[in-house]
Amino acid sequence: MNDAFKRIEVAVERSGLSIADKAGLMKVIGQIDDPSAAAAIAELFESRPDWIVRVSDNYKAKQAAFAANDLSLMESIIAQEEAELEKLEQ
Amino acid sequence: MMVMERLDLGIQRNEHEVFLDNGLARERSVLDRFKGKKTKAIAAVLALSSLVACGRQDHKSGEVEHGPKVTAAEQVNPHREQGAEWAAPRGDYLEIKTASGDVRVKNFYKTDKYVTQDHETVVLAENENYSISYYAGDEGFIITLFSADTAAARTAAESELLDQLGVSRDDALKLNVNERILNKNSPDDGKLMGLSFHGDK
């Protein structure tokens, strides 16, 4: 495990997420295959722990949308995702 | 492989699943929009969360798909495909695959504290000093030590792990077990370690 992933793991462990939510989020994080992206996420999670919760909530909401085959729910989740990314971009 | 390409692969592979395709296509448009911007990494993670949420995450660069990984839980509970009702393994023992051969453990689904909603995580113990979790995905265990008295918490957690699994130290060392110290007051905060008796072998 490289340093960025360790930093992400520690940040996630320190978050107030439940064990189940931490596991879900780490499943997503485990999919990152670009070290520079992992470093950027480590940076974000350390400086903005609120994003740990945002990404976790986003993942759980998508799971619910996919499970329910609810395209309008998926659309609203992604619209919110775009808005949050826009805000972070500024 | 870029996340975009992985999203495309996800779309092409299962064309009949229209809903999933639409969701992923929408996600791809977001990723396109933030390409080259400073938020591109988090946009990629949010896109990955879509892939994982719909179960199409297995397209990493250079990887050949070998079919779904069979976990200890699946050996005794083959009804894990989506939509099938999940049931905890009923037998008295589970076989956990390791690099050093299969390790037979007591069925900890009978002694756990709880199993998470997605059935991927089994929490064997959880208290103010430590937690012990099993992840079905990689058949690994993680012990998290919260207590200021790390040594005592470690001894207690390892003892509980051996107890619940009903395995010897030698067999425990074959398993994928990691321990993490999480205590901001400890100089070892964040440290990742193996089992304490690793050096005894």
Describe the structure.
The complex is a heterodimer of chains A (90) and B (201). Chain A has 90 residues and is an all-alpha fold. Chain A has helices spanning 3-14, 19-29, 35-47, 50-68, 71-89. Helix content of chain A is 82%, strand content 0%. Chain A is globular and about 40 Å long. Chain B contains 6 helices and 8 strands. The termini of chain B are far apart. Residues 59-83 of chain B have low confidence and may be disordered. Chains A and B meet through helix 1, helix 2, helix 3, helix 4 and helix 5 of A and helix 2, helix 3, strand 4 and strand 5 of B.
How are the elements arranged and paired?
The complex is a heterodimer of chains A (90) and B (201).
Chain A lengths: L2 H12 L4 H11 L5 H13 L2 H19 L2 H19 L1
Helix pairs in contact in A: 1-2, 1-3, 2-4, 4-5
Chain B lengths: L2 H11 L4 H16 L6 H14 L18 H5 L16 E4 L6 E4 L7 E2 L5 E6 L3 E6 L4 E6 L4 H16 L3 H6 L1 E6 L10 E2 L8
Parallel strand pairs in B: 6-7
Antiparallel strand pairs in B: 1-2, 3-4, 4-5, 5-6, 7-8
Helix pairs in contact in B: 1-2, 1-3, 2-3
Name some characteristics of this structure.
heterodimer; A: 90 residues; mainly alpha; 82% helix; 0% strand; B: 201 residues; alpha+beta; 6-stranded mixed sheet; two-stranded antiparallel sheet; 6 helices; 8 strands; 18% strand; globular
Give a quick precis of the structure.
The complex is a heterodimer of chains A (90) and B (201). By secondary structure, chain A is mostly helical.
